[in-house]
Amino acid sequence: MATVESSEGPTSTANPSKVTAGNESIDSTSIDHWGRSEDFRKALRSAFDPIYRYWFRVEWEGLDKIPKQGPALLVANHSGALPPDALSIMQGIEQGIGRPVYGLADNLFRTIPALNIAWSRGGGVSANPDNAYRLLADEGQLVLAFPEGIRGPLKPFSERYTLRRFGRGGFVETAMRAGVPIIPIAVVGAEESMPVIARVPIPKSQIGIPYLPITLNHVLFGPVLGSVLWFPAKIRIRVLEPVVIDAEPGEARYSRSKVLEESTKIEELIKRAITDMLRRRKNVILG
User: Fold this and answer.
1) Are 182 and 161 in contact (CB under 8 A)?
2) Alpha-carbon gap, residue 207 to 254, rounded angstroms
3) Among 31, 58, 229, 283, fewest CB within 10 Å belongs to which?
4) What is the dihedral of CA 21, 26, 30, 33, to 10 degrees?
């Protein structure tokens, strides 16, 4: 999943969702106009739940900071060659709060047959400022973004927990335009779940990424199993205080310096939280 910077819009379907702006519970069983299916999400949550509970043993701090109604842009760090952070965040919020979460993701997912449908049915939306704005301002949803983009999961293990720059601050501008709070989220444990130990350069035009990651999982379990089997690193997720930016919603343009300033502040908040969480962690597996 990625920052807010691509170009696909909502999927047209014949069955609009029953989910309404700011709904306090997930009550939709149809496919909405973004392609999200609550039936599919329910099945995915059931399948991922044992991994969430017993493999990663996910623990939350501050889950109550996620609003039970109304829009918010959730912003987190991103890591692991096959990142479990998005699945874990969406799982925890949908189970604990009872609200759907839409995850902004790179268009790479739309280019892979079968996966593109599953990604869409599971709540994935192309990372696009217009898509994010409509989800937030028009529909009152929770939207999850990873400003590091694909650079986070592709970074080598030697650079673990070193955040990649939060792009050009597109997520901040989107939040300002929609008039919604940004909720920073720090994740620890995903880095060790599938650590990248080498990167093979590939033509970007072929599959949309500059490197093919080689992980320790590949070395130990082989190319097939190693691509889908995570190490049982304990995942901790900390939700920070919402950031409300003083800006008039709906403006055509915002000060570039203001956008970058707020983006840097949020990046620093997440960095400090990660540093504190790592300092408190006694063991990668046990937490």
Assistant:
1) no
2) 34
3) 283
4) 30
- DSSP annotation of 11 reads P
Give the separation between CA 5 and CA 167, rounded to whole angstroms.
9
C-alpha to C-alpha distance for 149 and 205, rounded to whole angstroms: 17
Q: Which residues contact 266 (CB under 8 A, 6 or more apart)?
A: 75, 166, 172, 182, 184, 243
pTM: 0.86
Pairing type for strands 196-201 and 211-215 reads antiparallel
C-alpha–C-alpha distance, residues 253 and 139, integer Å: 22
Mutual angle of helices 256-280 and 170-178, in 10-degree steps:
110
Structure tokens that stand for 173 in this block: 């501008």
Find out if CATH 3.30.1360.70 is the number for domain 38-199+232-280.
no
**Average pLDDT by consecutive 10-residue portion of the chain (287 residues)?**
43 39 48 91 95 98 97 95 93 96 80 75 90 96 92 87 86 96 97 93 68 92 94 98 95 92 95 97 93
Query: Which residues make Cβ contacts (< 8 Å) with residue 124, sequence separation at least 6?
Result: 1, 102, 103, 105, 109
Cα–Cα distance, 280 to 157 (Å, whole number): 20
Give me the residue spans of the domains in the chain: 38-199+232-280
3-state secondary structure (DSSP) of residue 164: coil
